[in-house]
Automatic annotation (TrEMBL):
GO terms for cellular component: extracellular matrix; extracellular space. InterPro entries: Adhesion/Biosynth-related, FAS1_dom_sf, FAS1_domain. GO terms for biological process: cell adhesion; extracellular matrix organization. GO terms for molecular function: cell adhesion molecule binding. It holds the Pfam family Fasciclin. This is BGH3 protein.
Length: 197
């Protein structure tokens, strides 16, 4: 699937006497803002704005290149426990890993996404990007709230849940999501869970 500034290419290579015509499915608007400028001007990305500044990713998101930012909204940050959020915001390494897990290495418009597509993030992890009917999905969940916000250096999709990589979790959080969850309950009952957090 070929796209031009996220407009789908419908018919290609109509040769004319003075050039070539490609038919697309929407009008292409002028794009003037970088991904960083979109973050700075969008009210629903206020928490992300602070997180990007704290992780020193500003220069990357305003640099030349072609990235896809899966931008967690304020709502996404509010869904995780306050204690977990404060821990990540206070840990530059975990914060950077988490944000890099939301950045794909290439620009990916919604029209070009097919079911079962695996994309590599800047963190080196992978995300399963796909579609279920008309809805886009991430790791099988329809959490993309707004899609195809174009930037000069890529494209932004707003997501309403935080994508947390393993490298940004504590041992306790990792184990709770695994087959060791019963063991974690014993650690908690023995008042030893602080060693794993």
């Amino acid at each position: 699937i070929v796209t031009v500034n996220c407009a789908r290419l419908l018919k290609a290579d109509h040769h004319a006497t003075n050039g070539v015509v490609h038919v697309i499915d929407k009008v292409i608007a002028t794009t003037t803002n970088s991904i960083q400028q979109i973050i700075e001007t969008e009210e629903s990305l206020e928490t992300l704005r602070a997180a990007v500044a704290a992780s020193d990713l500003t220069s990357l998101l305003e640099s030349e290149g072609q990235y896809t930012l899966l931008a967690p909204t304020n709502e996404a940050f509010e869904k995780i426990p306050r204690e977990t959020l404060n821990r990540i915001l206070g840990d530059p390494e975990a914060l950077r890993d988490m944000l890099n897990h939301h950045i794909l290495k290439s620009a990916m418009c919604a029209e070009a996404i097919i079911a079962g597509l695996t994309m590599e993030t800047l963190e080196g992890t992978t995300l399963d990007v796909g579609c279920s009917g008309e809805e886009l999905t991430l790791n099988g969940k329809p959490i993309i709230a707004n899609k195809d916000v174009l930037a000069t250096n890529g494209v932004v999709h707003f997501v309403n849940e935080l994508l947390m990589p393993d490298s940004a979790k504590t041992l306790f959080e990792l184990a709770q999501e695994s087959e060791a969850s019963k063991s974690m309950e014993l650690f908690r009952q023995a008042a030893l869970s602080s060693h794993l957090t």
